[in-house]
Amino acid sequence: MPRLASAHRLSGFALGLDLRRVPAPVIERACLHILDALGVALAATGYDFAERGRAATVALAGQGDSPVIGWPDRLPMRDAAWLNGLLIHGLDYDDTHGASVVHASASALPAVLAAGLACGASGGQAVAAYLVAMEADARIGSVDGRFQKQGFHPTGVVGTFGATLAAGRLLGLDFVALNHAQGIALSMASGSMQFLEDGAWTKRMHPGGAAAAALQATALARGGFTGPAQPYEGRYGLYRSYLGYDGGDALAERLESLGEEWEMLRVGVKPYPVCHFNHAPIDAALALRAGHGLTAGDIARITVRLHPDQMPVVCEPADAKRQPRGDYEAKFSVQFAVAVALVRGRLTLDELEPDALADETVLALAARCEHAADPASEYPRVFPAEVVIETRDGRRLSHREAVNRGAEGRPLSAAEIIAKFEDNAARIMPDQAVDELRERTLNLPALDSLAELAEAFTAEP
C-alpha cells in the first residue's frame, strides 16, 4: 500500500485538532510556554539588535494592523511576525525541543499572533494552532538531528512548516490548500549556522523568518498558488535536499502518534539566557563551586565533556570561544559560560553585559577551559555534560548533569517559569501590567478574543 504523503497527514492533524480533546496538562504547558516567550521578547526590546531590527523593519514595511510585542508599532502581519520572532529568539532565552533542537515557540507564536489577530481568533483557537505548530515541528525536526551538523539552523528550516500549518488552520485553508502551503514553504525554509564563526546576529532572525515565510506560503496557497505534493519525502524534498537521505519513513512513523503523544511536554524552558548546550555545564560548574568553595585562583584546569555534535556549536574554535567578541558570541561559548558561572556564581542577562565580557578574571579562567567527548551522552534526547576541575593543590573534582535542567524528565516548574517571565517582563513593564499579562496568558484558552492578549503585551503609542 503506498505511503500517505506526510503533508497530507500533517494537514489532517492541523485541521482536525480539537482543543476539547487535548489533555489539560498539555494546554497548561502550552500557556506557560507562551508566557515564557512573551517574557523573553519583552526583555529583548531593550537591546541594540532589537532596536536595529525594528528600525529597519518599520522603514521597509510601513503601517499595518498587526501588533509587536512590547512596542506600539502596528505593521503588516508578515513584518510583525518577523519582528516578534526576532524578539522571542534574540536573547537565546526561548524554549527548545531537545530531540529536534528546534526553538519552536519562536516561530510558532509569531505566526499564530499574526494570523490569529487577522482572522479574529479566540484565545482557544490560538492555543490550538500553537499546539499544531509545536507538535509538527517536534516530529519533522527529530527525524534526524543533523541539520546543525550540515550547517542549517533547525529552527529556521523546520519552524517554517509548523508555522505554516498553524497559520493555515487559522486563516481557513482547506485540506488541499494546506498541502500546497507546505510545499511552498519548502522553498522558503532556511537558516545558516555560519553566525557561529564570528557571533553575527543572523541566527536571531531565523524564527521570525520562518514565521514570515509561513504567512507568505499560506497566502499564496489560499490564492491558488501550487506547491509540490511531497515536500518532506520527495526526490528533492526536505530530507534529501538538506540532509542527503530519505527521511520519509522515519517521519511517517513519528506522525503516527499525532494527537496521542504530546511533544509539547518535552519542550524545555531555559533557565539561562545562553545556548541550551551550555546549561548542564553551567549547573555542573555551579555545583562544584558551591560544594567545594572554589575561587578562580584555586583552579588550574577545567575540562567540559559534551557530545561531539555539540562541540562545533559551543566549543570550537576554542581560542575564539575563550574570548567572545560580544554577547551573542558569548552565548555560544561553553568556556565563557563555565568561567563566568564559577567566578560570579550565576549566569543571568547581566553576565552577558560588557563588564562581564571584559572581566579579566573570567577570561583568564576561560583560557584554562578545555573540552572533550562525553561517551555517556544521550544527546540529542537531552543535553548532558560533565565538568572536571583540577585544582592547584592537586585535587580532581567532577560533577555530571545527566539531564539538563528544563528538559524532559527535569522540567522547570510552573512557578519557576512564571518567576522567569516576571523577571523578564519587569525590565520594561510596571508591576500591574506584568500581572495583567500573566493572568491573560495563563487563561488564554478562556479568552473570547486573542486581541485581549495583544492589548496586554503592546505598549501605548
Tell me what the structure shows.
The chain is α+β, with helices and mostly antiparallel strands. It has two domains: 6-271 and 426-457, 2-methylcitrate dehydratase PrpD; 276-401, 60s Ribosomal Protein L30, Chain: A. It is 51% helix and 7% strand. The protein has 21 helices and eight strands. It has helices spanning 6-16, 24-44, 48-61, 77-89, 104-119, 123-142, 154-170, 175-186, 206-222, 238-243, 248-255, 279-292, 311-314, 318-322, 327-331, 334-344, 354-357, 360-366, 414-425, 431-442, 451-457, and strands spanning 66-67, 74-75, 96-97, 267-268, 299-306, 369-373, 385-391, 396-401. The strands form three sheets. A four-stranded mixed sheet has the order 6-5-7-8. A two-stranded antiparallel ribbon has the order 1-2. The longest helix has 21 residues, at 24-44. It starts with 5 loop residues before the first helix and ends with a helix.
